[in-house]
Write a structure and sequence with these properties.
N-(1-d-carboxylethyl)-l-norvaline Dehydrogenase, domain 2
Chain lengths: 254, 254
């Protein structure tokens, strides 16, 4: 049995708890957090504590807290034997104390409360300070997902940046589309099948192959008409910046 | 039986052909197009013609050709009794000759060869020059999809603009993410579950609710780090423009 302690009570911690608590090879020995109310979620199944100074013994301590607090909290923990890992996309493994056995377990997913559909397909980016510890952490990772990847800190930083484009910025595009719909009294819901279909395409094609639209076709007439329809300068700037970028991407082919 | 003639041999025409040809209430009497080779696709099941001057008789003539050619071709057709409709998102119904019974049948979908997954959920935006003709066209529309919407030309124009954000621009975000991955030797495939999950979210939540990421959280430290990581000025401009736009959207809440 892998003995695991979760430090932190946010969305990632809850997600890991739900998955690991149900796994026969894992013993979740303790959850540690500041927030008394948040700890109630875990207390039904596992011993909880608000005392960061006296942690129980475990093989792996998972620090699932805000990126900006990782280094500070990690340096205050009193860990003797186990391995300490964090779960952040953009924080280097080096942010953890050099005297400890260190690692990273980064679920490449946007976790916000509800549990994602196909948990066992979520990529887990794993890194550790020794080959032995990598194998230990990999063992834990396979208890969570089938998709475990050896990714170093620099690669993970780049993946996190790419994820901002793929997830946060694409969602903002949906958001702007819904603003346009709202402003003109048409239901955003009409666009949902289109969005689903675009995403289905990306599961098979490269985004480069899947691109369509006026900018891709070089249809300047429609681009100009759209720019005129957008009354807000913020939206005009986004429309022209992205259309230019698409044309730069495909420029050589036109 | 509704007698229908398709004019044009592109993706929309093929899509409509595949669906309508299989429908017991529709008689596809003819497909007309310039391109001999493209007509072969239809010729196995239906009479085809390259002569735009002598069309057969039908209840509804569907003009499924390039946006920019609609008005010109429409004015050259010799239609006596039937109704003429086009299928374009950004072209007004007024582009068709005023002396004819006119309409629009716009499938709000990106059709590029392969048939979309849930055809009967594709929204069809329908408009006609008289109430009687609306009902006729609506009848045909329900042979294609369960989702038929009465949308006028101005609403349709706005929907088409919104679709550029929701589909074309979001796909470009996937494209930029894949460029970042490629430049740093990490597989874009790792991002696919994230993209699928983001799209799943949008099927239930509003994009406004679903937004996550550094800009949404007001995490300036990560934004600055990402801007530094992006070596290309085009990507920097997109990153900062979109992050500012997200912050404008959520600014009042922070």
């Amino acid at each position: 049995m892998l003995k695991v302690i979760l430090i932190g009570t946010g969305n990632i911690s809850k997600f890991l708890f739900d998955v690991l608590n149900a796994h026969p090879s894992v013993n979740l020995v303790q959850v540690v957090g500041r927030n008394k109310q948040a700890l109630e979620y875990f207390a039904k199944f596992t011993p909880v504590s608000r005392n960061f100074e006296k942690l129980m013994e475990a093989d792996i301590y998972i620090l699932a807290i805000n990126d900006s607090a990782i280094s500070e909290v990690a340096h205050q923990l009193d860990i003797n034997k186990g391995m300490l890992v964090h779960t952040a996309g953009s924080v280097s493994m080096e942010a953890l104390p050099a005297k400890l056995r260190r690692g990273v377990l980064y679920p490449l997913q946007s976790l916000s409360g509800s549990i994602p559909e196909k948990i066992r397909e979520i990529p887990l980016c794993v890194e550790a300070s020794s080959e032995e510890d990598y194998q230990l952490l990999e063992k834990l990772a396979y208890c969570i997902s089938n998709r475990v990847e050896h990714i170093n800190s620099e690669e993970r930083r780049q993946l996190h940046l790419a994820a901002v484009f793929a997830n946060n910025f694409s969602n903002h595009m949906f958001c702007l589309a819904s603003e346009i719909c709202k402003d003109h009294g048409v239901p955003f819901d009409l666009l949902r099948p289109l969005i689903r279909e675009s995403c289905n395409k990306i599961m098979q094609l490269t985004p480069h192959e899947a691109q369509t639209g006026p900018a891709r076709r070089g249809d300047q007439e429609t681009i100009d008409e759209h720019l005129e329809m957008l009354k807000e300068s913020r939206l005009q700037k986004i429309y022209s910046t992205l259309s230019e970028s698409i044309q730069t991407t495909y420029g050589k082919e036109l």
